[in-house]
Amino acid sequence: MTALDAGALASWLGVAEVVLEGAPTGGGWSNDTVFVSAGGLQLVVRLTPTGTSMFPSYDLGHQVRCLELAAASGLAVPELVGYEPTGEALGRPFFVMARVAGRVPADDDPPFTKAGFLVEATPGQHRAFHDAAVRCIAAVHGIPAPGFVEVGPGLGDHMAWCQQLCRWSATAHPVIDAAHDALAAALPAHSTGAPRFLWGDARPANMVLDEDFEVVAMLDWELACSGPGELDVAWFCEMNRMRATGMGLSALAGWPDEATTWAQWAAAVGREPEHRGWHRRYAAYKVAVLMQLYLRAMVERGRLPARHRLFVDNPGTRRLEELDE
């Protein structure tokens, strides 16, 4: 578990005692997150990472502003308790938010399509979760693009962000480079919809569900950006595909097909989706880019040998090759 000075945190929170209660299972490659109890409350502390992270820089303030905007707009996000940007209290910046009670679909091995409460749920409950998730994504897109996000609003801006990450990570791959070139050549000229606030990482593992399979909290806003809502929908579809057929598994029995996902989103936002094929390919490209960064972080942390075969052949690159067939 991430080292955290419970006494210093208690002093900053103004409570008598803070009890460390563990950390989320899985993930944790781009940030440090710790569960604590303090003053009778269940809280989550998110800190800037120490050592190697997936990204060249880490702006907690960006996540705080996203949480504030989402909350002010009526979205289901954890309540922000406080933000300490200087690093004076714990040696590095952090923010504290309420821990929302509920269940979170697993994103690691085994994924939510193989084991856990969703596998044990009924097809009707699967569908209830899917529909609630799409409503949440559409609700984000009801917010105009904020000025503080760094990526977007143009599709070319998103392409440039991925390319910058590739250059920084020094993990060039011919399949990823070819995908970038193909996307750039087919870049849509415009979108009918005005730029919107985007979640950036809309997937089941970033949602807290209640007993009725409603989404009671939307988590993890570090990739929040701006642009057409299709970016979020395509990413959501790709994340679901990766955790099902992408891993040789079946989709959840009650989970509808992508056409239904797109149709429900379109009905919620009041316009038809555009350039779905391009957005599907961009989502796969983004997955492949971020996977290279993840592998690089694993090497830096001693979890994977340098020049491991996964840098050449992994689910992200195989998906891009599949889309080229």
Structural account:
The protein is an alpha+beta fold and 325 residues long. It has two domains: 6-98, Phosphorylase Kinase, domain 1, CATH 3.30.200; 117-324, Aminoglycoside phosphotransferase (APH), C-terminal lobe (Aminoglycoside 3'-phosphotransferase, Chain: A, domain 2), CATH 3.90.1200.10. It is 40% helix and 12% strand. It has helices at 6-13, 60-72, 117-120, 123-140, 155-169, 174-185, 230-242, 258-269, 276-300, 315-324, and strands at residues 18-20, 32-38, 41-47, 80-84, 94-98, 196-198, 207-209, 215-218, 225-227. The strands form three sheets. A five-stranded antiparallel β-sheet has the order 1-2-3-5-4. A two-stranded antiparallel sheet has the order 6-9. Strand 7 (207-209) and strand 8 (215-218) form a beta hairpin. The longest helix is centred in the last third of the chain and has 25 residues, at 276-300. The mean pLDDT is 93.
